[in-house]
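Deliverable D5.2: sample structural annotation.
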Amino acid sequence: MIQSKQAETEKASGNQKFKKGDFVNALTHYSNAINFDPKNPIYWTNRAMTLLKLERFKEAESDCTKGLSLDPKNVKALWRRSIARKNLGLLKEAKDDLSWALMMEPTNKSVIEELKSVELLLKTREAKEKQESILEKVPVSVHKTTNTLPKHISQAIKNDNPKNNLIGTELNNINRKNIEFNPTKPKSTIEFERLWKESKNTPENIIKLLKTIEPNSLPNIFGSSFEEKHFVTIINSLYAHLQKNSDYQWTFKILEGMTKISRMNIALMFLSQNTKQVVNQILDEVSRNIDEKYSHNLKNIRRIFTS
């Protein structure tokens, strides 16, 4: 009984540290709880969540497996193990965990959204593997060629520098134009993902892409494919944008639109303290430069993104 009370005390301390973002010390407290009472599955799943935050995915998977051995119907353990396995590249195993969790809790939104994400990753991987398989089967013929040009012409071509002639200059200008990123409004999630890849994740290009979208349509555009990397890229791009532009009202609308994205809660699970600091800096800047009537909305955005 004493051991059990000590375990609960350690768990409570771990929960407090976890809420503050102090995952290292939270891990210590959850480990102490396990030492006092190793047969309680909650302690294992709590420590697993902390390990996920620390990106120690193999250990998180192991803790979830231990928790499930003590409580096979623990949906949280299945969901957390699926996240660990997804990050380890074990997509089929992650899908199995989520399918089993969904059988027990058919309306669990977190499980539903994560399953959609894993299925999308599986389809992408399978399509890539299929394409690579086709390419491997295509025979490649190598033909030896000889230079039949007269020597003086061949030498002239070799010495010619396109930068020193008009045609070369025009070609260089065309190449520069081809590199420019000028997106049009995406009509679907797939088209948006294509444009996102073309943007090369540069702040200027991400802002250009976001400018083509109505902020309140962000949830529909991202669908179930939103991940932490999207959040971090957008936040960093907004921060860079505000250094040169006074686009405060638009930035506010983008942030508010992002709060409504269905997978946002999952994306925020692994958010670093550095990114949260950037979010706070953006919100501080925006709050100083837009109407006070939006103060409640800004507080809500801050609560969702940084708590």
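Annotation notes: The chain has a mean pLDDT of 85. Residues 57 and 298 are 34 Å apart (CA to CA).
The annotation will be released with the project's public dataset once the embargo ends.
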